[in-house]
Amino acid sequence: MTRQALLSRTLLLDLETTRTGRIRHVGAVLGDTVFEKKAPAHGQKTLARLDALADRADFILGHNLLGHDFPVLAAAHAHLRMLQKPVIDTLYLSPLAFPENPYHHLVKDYKLVRASVNDPVAAARLAAAVFTDQWERFDTIGAKNPRQLDFFRFCFSGTRFNGFSGDGLAAVFARLGASGMASPLAAQTWFLDATDGIVCLPAAIRQLPELLADAARRPMLAYCLAWLQVAGSNSVLPPWVRHRFPGIPSVLRELRDLACQDPACRYCRQSHDPDGHLTRFFGFSAFRPQPADAKGRSLQREIVVSGMRDEPLLAILPTGGGKSLCFQLPAWCGIGAGDCSPSSSAPFRP
User: Fold this and answer.
1) Helix/strand/coil percent split, the chain, to 5
2) Is pLDDT above 90 for 206?
3) What CATH code is assigned to 3-175?
4) In the chain, N or C: fewer CB atoms in 10 Å?
5) pTM for the predicted model, two decimal places
């Protein structure tokens, strides 16, 4: 199915609400049909007409429908038929399509966004424009790596958000040609291959079976994967993703921040090597031997190692003890937020 065919059968929807959650303005578009009701717009007749229009659609599309519009509609009238329709939420798709800049279209079309305030019809159409960008990016991703779209489809199949089905998100990938994954084991095998060298292998093997077996938590891995593939460039993990999926930071912490002792783990060998990073970024062959800790080890090195592990710490060194390097080197390494592959940067001379 083409994007145009999908949108022709999709109701574009946006609601404007009061601070108390009452619907004051409704805008919806289905093909050539435009539905708009200004304040007050929470009446049963208005919602019944909107529901009748939605009966003609296969999908409901909008921005933050799962987190805002659908809960508001459910509170106003829990028995609306449209609440059972598959939802295509552009907010949920943006971090997957544009992990390096998930707000790209809203920033680019800021004037349009401002013009859409108090105009839900324009906002509904803007969501379709955002979706067009997302579709084109997913189409490009699929041409290079179709299994990535298969993984995304698998992660969103059978999911629910705020009580509403996430199958509309999975349907987008299906209509892009994704077949999904045959099993959680197949998804795990592909994820390990796709993240080889950019995550801790033992940590991934330890976490994946439980996460992939749980439909409620599988979407976390889709967002983790998208972010991991651009980590170290202009990567952004939106705050709403961390709020909606609070387990993501701990998953990424295990995958990136905590060094294992397995010599077979290529990522940890390269990324958790303070001495190698010292030479690569600053051109120094060794850390300062003094001051030393109670075991005679370079205190400067121990502080850097703790910083690379993202551990809270208080370090007090004398003037000339190398304090600046203690926070600069972990930041340059970008553990948990960057690319520490040996070829990712030229030496930095202070």
Assistant:
1) 55, 10, 40
2) yes
3) 3.30.420
4) C
5) 0.83
